[in-house]
């Protein structure tokens, strides 16, 4: 089955008692049993819930995986992966990681004895150099946030297999419509469902997908034991959101391309970061592993003044100044003071998150209006 068909049909069935085509919101904590241990597959909604179950099957299908698990947030999904590890285990990750991932690694898990190495993952050699006998997880984010760096997933899979490590990929930016890490050798895919999968800026949720039976067992054990599950209502909203994922992402890509080219030619702009440019250092890798380049774009202003960046974001009228991304509406953000404020200045600047860096999540409005909005704010 192709993507659009799976997005709409995978995991869902008409309700058996009424024929309702939409999966009902099973707003229930528990399930009546006919006799002790004699139930219909559901005992308690932390462990499993029919609405969540339909969504988990749907997300697994669109990522070409066997097992899906949904969590209360993207970070709760990341939390689950790290809990598979033991004290003394080492993780290799990228040095321009999403700020929240960096924070949970450094401030939560380091004190439980997990060791994190942050390297330039665009160079396979720097990942290889960081491998030790304790390396248990390679954590990839691609495209990265907010610098739009591209990491070669297939190359990371080779390194992971050679070192006996799990390869996990944060696929939030690309979405399963543009990139499927499991097909490229990853063991686990992670999503902040909050972003493109939900797509309407009305839900916070995370998901994991794997085809590995052993990893799936661990993920479900931790999901149930730690309990950071997602609610039935939210599961319903995301099931609805995913039905249009392919259409939305097509439009995000079209608008993204137009805006990237507009910005590239603007006299006030220094650099534009978007993997669709042939001049992007890893454009070839992006072309190889992605089916489109998405609507996430970052840029810097000439002169690199903090105040210029703050003034620009403030002047936008259609682009809303807000954290998050991936919704139908366009958002603009200032990473240094917003999403990446928890990363020390010297660390963030080394990876390119300078004071004038501005990040766009290009929505699915009309591109001409979005370009006019940018024109005004930059004038
Ligand atoms: C937002 C985001 C997360 C965290 O997800 P939440 O749903 O906010 O917890 C992780 N990775 C990336 C790339 C993100 O954009």
How are the elements arranged and paired?
Layout: H1 3-9, H2 50-62, E1 67-71, H3 74-82, E2 90-94, H4 99-109, E3 115-119, H5 124-130, E4 135-141, H6 153-163, E5 166-170, H7 175-178, E6 188-192, E7 206-210, H8 213-226, H9 232-242, H10 245-264, E8 269-273, H11 283-289, E9 296-301, H12 306-315, E10 320-321, E11 331-333, H13 345-350, E12 358-361, H14 367-378
Parallel strand pairs: 2-3, 2-4, 4-5, 5-6, 10-11
Antiparallel strand pairs: 1-7, 6-7, 8-9, 9-12, 11-12
Overall description:
With 379 residues, the chain is an alpha/beta fold. The protein folds into two domains: 3-242, Type I PLP-dependent aspartate aminotransferase-like (Major domain) (Aspartate Aminotransferase, domain 2, 3-Layer(aba) Sandwich), CATH 3.40.640; 245-378, Aspartate Aminotransferase, domain 1. 37% of the residues lie in helices and 15% in strands. A seven-stranded mixed sheet has the order 1-7-6-5-4-2-3, sandwiched between helices. A five-stranded mixed sheet has the order 8-9-12-11-10. Helix 1 (3-9) packs antiparallel against helix 2. The model has no long low-confidence stretch (mean pLDDT 96).
């Amino acid at each position: 089955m192709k993507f659009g068909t799976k997005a709409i049909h995978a995991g869902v069935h008409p309700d058996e008692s009424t024929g309702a085509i939409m999966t009902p919101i099973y707003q229930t904590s528990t399930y009546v049993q006919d006799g002790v241990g004699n139930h219909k597959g559901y005992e308690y909604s932390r462990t499993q819930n029919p609405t969540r179950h339909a969504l988990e099957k749907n997300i697994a299908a669109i990522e070409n995986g066997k097992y899906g698990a949904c969590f209360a947030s993207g970070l709760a999904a990341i939390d689950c992966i790290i809990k598979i590890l033991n004290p003394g285990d080492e993780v290799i990750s990228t040095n321009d990681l999403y700020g929240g991932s960096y924070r949970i690694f450094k401030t939560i898990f380091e004190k439980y004895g997990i060791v994190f190495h942050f390297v330039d993952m665009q160079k396979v050699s720097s990942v290889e150099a960081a491998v030790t006998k304790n390396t248990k997880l390679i954590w990839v984010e691609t495209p990265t946030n907010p610098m739009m760096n591209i990491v070669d997933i297939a190359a990371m899979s080779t390194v992971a297999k050679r070192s006996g490590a799990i390869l996990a990929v944060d696929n939030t930016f690309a979405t399963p419509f543009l990139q499927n890490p499991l097909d490229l050798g990853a063991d686990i895919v992670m999503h902040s469902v909050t972003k493109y999968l939900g797509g309407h800026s009305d839900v916070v949720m995370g998901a994991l997908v794997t085809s590995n039976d052993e990893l799936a067992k661990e993920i479900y054990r931790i999901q149930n034991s730690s309990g950071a599950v997602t609610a039935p209502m939210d599961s319903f909203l995301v099931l609805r959101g995913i039905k249009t994922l392919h259409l939305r992402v097509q439009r995000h890509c079209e608008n993204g391309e137009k805006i990237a080219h507009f910005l590239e030619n603007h006299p006030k702009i220094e650099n534009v970061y978007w993997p669709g440019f042939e001049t992007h250092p890893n454009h070839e890798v992006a072309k190889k592993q992605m089916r489109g380049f998405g609507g996430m774009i970052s840029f810097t202003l000439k002169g690199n003044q903090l105040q210029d960046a703050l003034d620009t974001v403030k002047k936008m009228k259609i682009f809303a100044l807000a954290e998050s991304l991936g919704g139908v509406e366009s958002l603009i953000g200032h990473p240094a003071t917003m999403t990446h404020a928890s990363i020390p200045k010297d660390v963030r600047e080394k990876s390119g998150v300078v004071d004038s860096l501005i990040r766009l999540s290009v929505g699915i409005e009309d591109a001409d209006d979005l370009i006019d909005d940018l024109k005004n704010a930059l004038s």
